[in-house]
Amino acid sequence: MRCLSVSSSLRRVPLPFPSACVCWKVGWSPGRASSERMSVMQANQWWLAAAIVCEVIATSALKASDGLQHWRPAVLVVAGYVCAFYALAQALRTIPVGVAYAIWSGVGIVMVSLIGYWLFKQRLGTGELAGIALIAAGVIVLQIAA
């Protein structure tokens, strides 16, 4: 596994996929250092995306487990939430906690609502759809502003 090297000291920044990496050396140029900070930020955005996916899988499995009565979905619940919180912790290295949590919960709400509609045949009324649309709009505003 390759690592992310910063300056002369090696610092490993794991990415959400096994063999991928970002490698660079920080130069003295302010513009160059800024683009390199963006690379770390983009890596942590991948961690945030992984946290969202794991949380959505775990929450969907929670519904499928019928109150943790079925062991297979229950195992997926535990594994999914452990992975989600680990990935979220990695993302919080550079993403502000308020922004990361808002995006994590907002995208998670929208995705779980859609999965509930398609997979579990749960109906969404006009109020629920309007709320989901507002949450999605808020996440888009956060992504643009952050």
- Based on secondary structure, the structural category is mainly alpha
User: Segments where pLDDT lies below 50 for 5+ residues?
Assistant: 1-33
N-to-C SSE series?
EEHHHH
**Count of individual helical segments:** 4
Q: Give the biggest beta sheet.
A: 2 strands, antiparallel
Our count of domains comes out at 1
Mean pLDDT: 78
User: What percentage of amino acids are in beta strands?
Assistant: under 5%
Helix content: 55-70%
Q: Please state the oligomeric state of the protein chains shown.
A: single chain
Shape: flat
CA-to-CA gap between the ends? 30 Å
Biggest sheet strand order reads 1-2
Q: Kindly state the number of beta strands.
A: 2
Radius of gyration: 18 Å
Structure write-up:
The protein is 67% helix and 3% strand. The chain is mostly helical and 146 residues long. It has one domain (5-145). A hairpin with a 2-residue loop joins strand 1 (5-6) and strand 2.
